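Appendix B, record 7
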Amino acid sequence: MDFVPFYSRYKNIAERETRTIKITANDLGVPRAEYVLLENYCTDKSCDCRKVMINVVEVNPPRRILATIGYGWESVEFYTKWMYGDEKIARSITGAYLELGGIQSQYAQH
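Structure tokens (predicted):
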């Protein structure tokens, strides 16, 4: 499965719809800054993973990726079938989770 940024294929839509978050105060040590949420989707036409990976990236330099969040929008049953019966993995990729193979900073858990 190869994932590419949504904006690489749909620049006009991404310019209108990409969201940012601004951390102005917190008790967890996450740097106060603005972060862009960059969506990445699977490019394999034979794949039916139905998931997105979202990179949380600093808007200003050095533009580090703070977290890679996976989100599977289908049911546990769907992912169990997709994972050839492995319900444990299916549960781990249903809903929001930190992407196991993604970039994670010290702030990712927050």
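Remarks on this record: The two ends are 27 Å apart (CA to CA). Residues 3-98 form one domain.
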